[in-house]
Amino acid sequence: MCLETHGAVCEWDGDQLTAWVTTQGVHQCAQQFAQSLGIPQSNVRVITQYMGGGFGSKFAPDVQGLICARLAKLANAPVKLMLDRKEEHLDTGNRPSAFAQIRAGVTNDGKLTAFDGRSWGTGGAGANANFPLPYLYQFPNRRRVHTDVYINAGQQRAMRAPGHPQGCFLTEILMDELADRVKIDPVEFRIKNAPPKAPNQMWVEYFQQGARQFGWEKRHPTGDPAPGPIKAGMGVSAHLWGGGGRGTQAHVDITSDGAVVVRCGTQDLGTGTRTLVTIVAAETLGLPTSAVKAEIGDTNYPFSPGSGGSTTAASVSPAIRITSIKALDALFARVAPVLGTAPGNLVAESGRIHVKGDPTKGLAWKDACKHLGTEPITVDGQWGEGLSSSGTSGVQFAEVTVDIETGVVRIKRILAMQDCGLIVDKLTAESQVYGGIIAAINFALFEDRLLDRVTGQMVNPNMEWYLLAGMSDIPTIDIVLNNMPERGVIGIGEPPTVSTASAIANAVRNATGATIRSLPLHPHKVLAALEQQKAGGT
Amino acid sequence: MKAFAYVNATSERDAVAALKFDGIALPLAGGQDLLARMKDYIDTPERVVNVKNALDRTAAPTSGGGWRIGASMKIVDLLEHADIGKMYPAIIAAATDIGTPQIRHQGTVGGNLNQRPRCWYFRNEEFVCYKKGGSRCFAVNGENQYHAIFGNDGPSHIVHPSSLAVPFVAYGATFRVIGSKGEREVAAAEYFTMPDDELLTHVMLPAPGNVKTGHYEVRYKASHDWPLAFTTVVLAMNGGIVQSGRVVLGAVAPVPWRSKPAEDALAGKPLNEATAAAAAEAAVSEAKPMSGNAYKVPIARTAVKRAILNAAGIKTV
Ligand SMILES: Cc1cc2nc3c(=O)[nH]c(=O)nc-3n(C[C@H](O)[C@H](O)[C@H](O)COP(=O)(O)OP(=O)(O)OC[C@H]3O[C@@H](n4cnc5c(N)ncnc54)[C@H](O)[C@@H]3O)c2cc1C
Ligand code: SF4
């Protein structure tokens, strides 16, 4: 759910359209404006300086963008068209639903043997709603039949880690039920059945390290034996994601006044891409971040793909690094004669350019740049292999309390074990984990599109009844980021949002002993499961 | 929002005069409810009369040992009122979790008591239900998980939205109202079924006497949300024995719901866990849930039980 709704401001200058759009892909958006309006793409400029969240739902101009452009043309004036909250709920897509019937086999010593599942999902009318199932764990024999169900309701759209939270939830709650069947601790059971350790498969280590840090040894078996209505429980879940980089291009200018401008037609979804661009360029040039100006979010800048699939950091960082090195080499070539040495002997660090191993033989950055005179450094570069990779893994732990007289679940704490290759900036990387977990708390407890069963109308297209966690619903969140510089940069936007709901659901089962195979964990479901448990079944 | 004329009334008399209008005129207090309804085209008044400056914003002791609270008093000021807090703790408990800090700073006592239903069919332009002059209640065969479980004889199945109304009824408050026919006082418990053509000016709270009070709310989300059910109990005590009591439930019926069976179950009994459990059971004995809200019955029962235990000073959770 985007707090900033979808929309745009459009303005024409003759046959030239400038559109300020809240979009995750300026170039892609320009292409679609051009196609839909029947004008050359070179006549369209799309700008996205800042945006209030996209989560996969904001790539195209959409109907509202095209209407905005057409109105601006007719009015011969700039037009702003932002959806209101109700339109946002009705028109801009949802994570598709998922439903499954699963049979699974496990040996007495806790090895998974078979998975046999039928699944259904709906993405609205005529849309695909498939998702990975079974998720992550190794079932040597597996069969699965999926059926898409078309319904006459708002269309599905990509939403942060498309498919994964659904598949993860259905598999991870099964894992806890199977672990109970063979009376093995859920962490141990998962370790027995997780894929072997590899740089992109660190689960076994995260289970072990996380369990220690979380205090997993204090977890009681299913069903809190403590007296009173408040039951506490712990749960765990694991996830994976791809990420990985591709085709970003960039441009770097260094002028005789020492100014550095980096341009890249990527966009910042609020994830900190602008910060990333600045940090990579500054570090490469041996400058403080304040000395680098990053210009992004504009189709006038070199091409960069849309920000989807957690690919932005891995696409942009290498491009900026490679282009900045190119610019620095060009600068060294100009400065080396002044310092009486070869370009290859120079380094840039701490705001100076000097001879390797002899900091006294050098110039301050600004003084070095003075030698550029009227011919600045201006270079283009692009993403290349070797500085990024793909494939991340993570594990999350949750502790909850459940009031068994009211069915209300409160989350006490979450621990996230996560990697994303080389951590370029700890602050923004951790921010993604916090944001992902908070969004997943909504998935676990609150978010629910309620359609009136008689008319098919959504009854809660607002922020009063479409519930979202507030500050007081958010628990302590601890994050352990595993820095793996040897792997290069990998994205982190999506993976941390996958596991949380499954870990919470497993913690609720551990607390109450009642099995709830459905999200969100609304009190009515919790109370119904407790009733069923009292009646002797799950 | 549809265009409207705006009148800023500065006295009770002005306000009443301005509301007497040949067309739709509505009083505006903090605007937390009215303006939202206007933006969603649920109400399209031709005239909006600001009554904030016309009605009393303060609370004052009365000669009978009680208090009177002005309709323009902000929820936050009520919440922070030390004397009212000491004498009527359930009012403070009810005010504490209303909406969000922003809503409590803007919303008023009068606006809170007179807010319109939050039923999602009522609030949705597309559904023209009984409450909007239509010919049916969409909640009956539709989505009714947050609707009434008591007083469900219809035509409407809303739950009364005001958190403050419940302790006011429990403390036996009366409301002072004014209209074109002059002023009068009505029992809080009657007010919510009256036609709403008068202006509420004051809440009159009697001296509480020797009572124990308790309040308990069940909320799904911790803030910016509505309670699933809540209860205020005000118990007149004779030593350790409950002489008589008022048990009022909120968020479960179209009006603040006074539970006679629960009150009967309490009378003459010692204030302890067994009595609380019996009264809670009695309270839900007359529940008539709809198709999708039977889960609210155990929640209401828990709210009653815990409110009584709270009055007894017994820790519940
Ligand atoms: C997400 C959310 C959660 C909320 N949670 C709660 C909650 O838990 N408990 C709760 O009680 N409330 C809750 N509220 C509602 C909020 O408290 C009320 O909207 C607010 O108190 C209304 O007060 P106001 O002064 O702003 O009223 P206004 O919007 O100004 O008026 C409300 C209505 O009363 C009429 N009116 C105003 N003054 C008078 C008067 N003196 N005499 C007669 N009629 C009058 C107006 O015409 C209007 O129809 C919540 C609201 C939201 C959005
Ligand atoms: S409960 Fe029924 S009649 Fe009442 S407001 Fe809702 S839909 Fe309308």
TrEMBL record, chain B:
> Which InterPro entries does the entry mention?
CO_DH_flav_C, CO_DH_flav_C_dom_sf, Diverse_Substr_Oxidored, FAD-bd_PCMH, FAD-bd_PCMH-like_sf, FAD-bd_PCMH_sub1, FAD-bd_PCMH_sub2, Mopterin_DH_FAD-bd
Q: Which residues form the FAD-binding PCMH-type domain?
A: 1-210
| Gene Ontology MF, one | FAD binding
What the entry lists under SMART domains is as follows: CO_deh_flav_C
Coiled-coil annotation reads none
Pfam families referenced in this protein's UniProt entry, alphabetically: CO_deh_flav_C, FAD_binding_5
SUPFAM superfamilies given for it? CO dehydrogenase flavoprotein C-terminal domain-like, FAD-binding/transporter-associated domain-like
Q: What is this protein called?
A: Molybdopterin dehydrogenase
